[in-house]
Design brief:
The protein is mainly beta and about 170 residues long. The protein is about 10% helix and about 55% strand. It has 3 helices and 10 strands; from the N terminus they run αββαβββββββαβ. It has helices at about 5-10, 50-55, 145-150; strands at about 15, 35-45, 60-65, 70-80, 80-95, 95-100, 105-110, 115-125, 130-140, 160-170. An 8-stranded antiparallel β-barrel has the order 2-3-4-5-6-8-9-10. Strand 5 (about 80-95) and strand 6 form a beta hairpin. The longest helix is centred in the first third of the chain and has 7 residues, at about 5-10.
Length: about 170
């Protein structure tokens, strides 16, 4: 059984780029993503107390927009369905890393349980058309049916933590 909206939220991954904004005589040029739709090429989970590999479907598309001198917005999708309430703004945090605002997503798991997820992500933009990211996700559940959700996790309890890692290329 798939929890596609949770997976989408899982994609709440991170944003970054190749640049150093330190006080050096020669600063590297900040690499920003090309605006538009990007295909997620690879995904995988690490630090996975949730057993996410077993029931979370990761996003398959990312949209980068509002690209400015040191920031951009990112939106995650699964099968053309947006993950989360909207886009997250990602800001250059130094040493080539963009850190994104928290992403919130919830989806019904059953008639008696709703799974919510909060994701903190970062992205590294390796070129205008290639990026990698990671999203640290915390899953929680509300409702009488949460015991079923807890049974799917590696720890047998909620909340649980997992990290979704991804690579993407511009379409």
């Amino acid at each position: 059984f798939r929890v596609s909206s949770i997976a989408l939220l899982s994609c709440i991954c991170l944003a970054g780029c190749d640049a150093d904004k330190g006080d050096t005589a020669e600063e590297e040029a900040l690499v920003l993503p090309q605006a538009g739709d990007w295909t997620i090429v690879t995904t995988g989970y690490t630090n996975d107390d949730c057993n996410a590999e077993g029931f979370l479907v990761p996003p398959d598309l990312i949209t980068f927009a509002d690209v400015a001198s040191d920031s951009f917005s990112i939106t995650y999708f699964l099968e053309n369905e947006r993950i989360g309430d909207g886009s997250s703004t990602c800001t250059h945090a130094g040493e080539g890393v963009f850190v994104c605002e928290d992403l919130y997503h919830s989806t019904p798991f059953s008639d008696n349980a709703t799974v919510s997820m909060v994701g903190v992500s970062s992205v590294t933009v390796t070129s205008e058309t290639a990026a990698t990211g990671a999203g640290d996700l915390v899953l929680e559940c509300t409702g009488m049916g949460c015991g079923q959700v807890e049974g799917l996790t590696n720890t047998g309890s909620l909340p649980c933590d997992t990290t979704l890692n991804w690579t993407a290329t511009a379409e």
